[in-house]
Structure formats: C-alpha cells, structure tokens
Design a protein that fits this description.
The structure holds 2 protein chains of 2 kinds. By secondary structure, chain A is of the alpha/beta class. In chain A, 40% of the residues lie in helices and 25% in strands. A 5-stranded parallel beta sheet of chain A has the order 2-1-3-4-5. In chain A, helix 1 links the parallel strand 1 and strand 2. Chain A is globular, with a radius of gyration of 14 Å. The mean pLDDT of chain A is 91. Chain B has 9 helices and 10 strands. The chains are: A alpha/beta, B alpha+beta. Chains A and B meet through helix 1 of A and helix 8 and helix 9 of B.
Chain lengths: 126, 312
C-alpha cells in the first residue's frame, strides 16, 4: 500500500523539522508540506485515486485564515468517502485543545511540538 | 350648690361667680393645688393667686362676656405641669374643670421626637429606603427615594401610590417595571434577596443593589408588605468591569505565552535535536541558521508580551 505523509503548518521551519525527523526515523518516504490548511485541502482534492493509498496528516491548530479545526470540518464535509490518519501537531499546551482534538472522529491523537524521533516511533508508523 | 359629679375622677372642679370669687372648690382641686376650700371660698384669693397667670388671655372675663365654652391647655412654669382647663358659663357662674395632662403631653412630645428622629435617620443617607404594602402601594420612603422616583419617572410619587404603575413610557421602562413587579412578588411570597437594578435618570445611568425583605406582622405572622433598601453600586460595578477587562487582557497575555511563545520554542528544541543527530556539516550549518532565526522569533514575541504587559 502506498503511503503519503502530509504536513500542514504555516511555519516553514516547523515543516522542515518534521520532514527531517520523519526521514531520519523511518527512512525515505513520500512527504508533502503545505503552508496553509487551504493548500492542504487543494492537495487532497488533486489526489488521482485513493485506492490502495493511505494519507497520514500532521495538522497544526493555530494558523492564519483557515485553522486546524476548520480543516477538520472541511474534510468531514468534502471527503465523506475517504478515511485519513490524522495527528494534531501543535505547540499548544492548552489541555482544552488536546481534549477538543481527541473529540474529533478522524483524529488519532494530539502530539505536542516539536516532533521528535521518539514521538514518531511511538506512532508505530514504520 | 349640688354635690359635685367630678370628685371620683382625677379632675379638679370649681365654680366662679361673676366677681371671680370661688363658689365651690372640689377636693381634687385641693389635691392638685394644695389649697383647701376654706382659703378659696367667697373671697379674692382666686383672683390674687391665678388671674395674673391667665391675664394675657383674659379667659375668665371672656367666658362671662361672650358666654361660650372654652377649652385650652395651660402650662404652669412653677410646677412644671400641663393642665387642661375647660370653662362652661352657666347662668351667672363659670363651671371650670382642670386636669393634669403633663404625662400625656410628655408622651406626645416623646412621640414627636421619635417621629422626627425616624425622619432624620431615614433621610441621613443617599441610599434608598422604602416600603410597600401587598398591593405595591408606597407605605413610606425617604427623601432619596422620592427624589430618584421623580427623576426616573418624571412624576411625584406620594404615600399610597402604586410603585409599579405603568404609564405611557417607553418599552424599556415597561420591561424594567415588570422586573420590579416580579421582585416584589417574590418578596411578598416570603423570600429575602438582593438584586441589581439599572436606574436611568436624565443625567446618567446608575446601578443600584436593592435588597428585598418581607415585612411580617408580629402577631399574625402574615406578610403585609416589603421593605426595600437600595444602595448605589455604580462605581463598584464600573470597578468590576475594569477588573474584568484587565483580566481579559491578562488572559490574552497568558494565551500569547502558551501559544505564540511555544511555536518558536518548539522549533528551537526540534532544531537542536536535529543538529545533534545529523553528521553532515553543510546540513548542520543550514540548521544552525534556522536555529538563529527561530531564536529571533522568540525574542520578538517576548518583546511583544513585554509591551502588552506595560498597559496592564
């Protein structure tokens, strides 16, 4: 099965760190980074076929314009057929954000930034 | 002279002839004045002893000449006593009764003092004090209450007037009167409580904290009305609002701490971790540059928080 990792974060440094950690943890993988939630949605719409494809999304919460919560609502509305593996990846230490994230059906878990090798291995993605 | 009918009471009784000579002097008169009848009867003693005290009014001469009943209260400054005197002209005589009313006068004066004191106590405050009966009619109110009622409704309110009467006022006022009505109803059901009420006068809007206390009849244990006490809490309310706004700014700063500071900080932690685990020198150089950038971002946020905190 083909697997695509999608990082959605308005901070380019964060996207770079995430990419590096993912590469050093589980080797060469297919990674896309989007600097806005809107661009993330556009990417998901341009995917040719979801057959035999797993998309793992690392989603930031606080972003200008469409934020992480808005993005979750959009994919719930627009992608009724597809299943995604979504991790909320945020610098927030607000327990309310963690509680809210875990109340979403598509969200697997809430990860506090920075993403590290240990945290990735913990997700059992390899 | 017939036997007097007054001897059994405390009332003194005497009769004068047209020369103001005493024709009859009752036992009670002796008790009251200390003068026995023998001294008083049939001579000028009465005139000598008393007329100078009554001279100004010339009451006895007047009673004779005009032939009408006369009643008055007279204060004897020597005995420090009040007497109620009634004179009835009958044929050529004056029937006169006299009773000591000092005690009654004293009670009346005490009552006046209490009434006066109550008025002063009620009016000594800018707080509002009033009471209503079961039909929301005003039983009493202090001056501050009457003033504020006049300012808010534009009309004078008197004792006995309804305090929840709805005139041709704006909808806002009708709504407020409904609020008052339900508060009075609750108190008339026996609840004691305090509520804040906005009171608009032509000058300004104010907030009063009003406490409602049912008035319970001592013996019958039924609620006969409501006693109300209103305190102007406008300043306190404004103060609370300013504290609220300060709190919300502090919350914003705390939010900045939690979210905006942690973003570059987590980048710094992530980059440092990467630098330690990467061997390629050129790549390390790149990451150190990014580390420096992330540190500058953090610095800017710290400065931003410092400037926002200044105004708090």
């Amino acid at each position: 099965m083909r697997r695509i990792f999608l990082f959605i974060d308005d901070d380019p440094i964060a996207n770079l760190i995430n990419r590096k950690f993912l590469e050093t943890s589980i080797g060469q993988v297919e990674i896309h980074s989007c600097e806005s939630a809107y661009k993330g949605l556009v990417f998901l719409q341009t995917v040719d076929s979801y057959k035999n494809l797993e998309i793992v999304i690392f989603l930031d919460i606080n972003m200008p314009g469409m934020n992480g919560w808005d993005f979750l609502q959009e994919i719930d509305r627009e992608f009724t057929e597809q299943e995604f593996t979504i991790y909320m990846l945020s610098s927030s230490v607000d327990s309310e954000d963690k509680r809210k994230a875990e109340s979403y059906r598509q969200v697997k878990s809430f990860i506090s930034k920075p993403l590290t090798k240990d945290k990735i291995l913990h997700l059992n993605l390899a | 002279m017939t036997k007097p009918r007054f001897s059994k009471s405390e009332q003194g009784f005497f009769v004068l002839d047209s020369n103001l000579h005493v024709e009859y002097w009752s036992e009670n008169m002796t008790k009251i004045t200390g003068y026995p009848a023998e001294e008083m009867l049939g001579n000028d003693t009465f005139v000598k002893r008393y007329l100078h005290l009554l001279d100004k009014k010339k009451v006895f001469q007047k009673a004779f000449s005009e032939n009408y009943d006369l009643r008055f209260d007279y204060y004897n400054p020597i005995w420090k006593k009040w007497f109620r005197i009634a004179i009835f002209p009958y044929k050529d005589s004056l029937f006169t009764t006299l009773v000591d009313v000092s005690e009654e006068k004293q009670k009346f004066s005490e009552l006046l003092t209490v009434k006066n004191l109550k008025k002063h106590v009620l009016n000594s405050t800018s707080d509002l004090i009033w009471a209503i009966d079961r039909e929301c009619r005003l039983l009493l109110g202090n001056e501050s209450f009457f003033q504020i009622m006049k300012k808010t409704s534009g009309r004078e309110i008197k004792k006995g007037d309804s305090v929840v009467e709805i005139g041709p006022e704006s909808d806002l006022r009708v709504q407020r009167i409904n609020d008052w009505q339900s508060a009075y109803d609750n108190a008339l059901e026996g609840k004691t409580f305090a509520l804040n009420f906005a009171i608009s006068t032509p000058d300004r809007d104010e907030v009063y904290e009003v406490s409602f206390q049912p008035i319970v009849h001592d013996e019958e244990k039924v609620i006969t009305g409501v006693a109300c006490f209103g305190r102007n809490v406008t300043e306190r309310t404004q103060h609370l609002q300013s504290i609220e706004s300060q709190n919300s700014r502090l919350r914003e700063i705390s939010w900045l701490h939690s979210h905006q500071m942690r973003a570059p900080l987590s980048n710094i932690l992530g980059l440092a971790d990467l630098i330690l685990n990467i061997d390629d020198f050129a790549e390390k150089q790149e990451l150190v540059k990014l580390l420096h950038k992330a540190a500058s971002q953090l610095d800017n946020i710290v400065l931003d928080i410092a400037s926002k905190t200044k105004g708090v």
